[in-house]
Design goal:
About 10% of the residues lie in helices and about 25% in strands. The protein has about 60 residues and is mostly beta strands. It has one domain. Strands 1, 2, 3 and 4 form a four-stranded antiparallel beta sheet that branches. It is elongated, with a radius of gyration of 14 Å.
């Protein structure tokens, strides 16, 4: 499970994010908050987007429809 360090929102399965170096450590920041992080002086660590994986949830999630 990943959380955006700017808006403090839990990222959903499949949602894209990048790692940014901010406040002396690498932090997960969602795509929506990237402009705010860049204005605050954060430096992008990885150019490629990563996605939240939900492979561990398949045993606990029930299908409804």
């Amino acid at each position: 499970m990943a959380m955006c360090q700017v808006c403090r929102r839990t990222l959903l399965a499949g949602e894209r994010y990048r790692m940014w170096h901010w406040e002396r450590r690498d932090q997960t920041i969602c795509v929506v908050c990237e402009p705010l992080a860049e204005e605050a002086g954060a430096v992008r660590v990885v150019d490629a987007y990563e996605s939240v994986r939900a492979t561990g949830l398949t045993q606990t999630v029930r299908r409804v429809a």
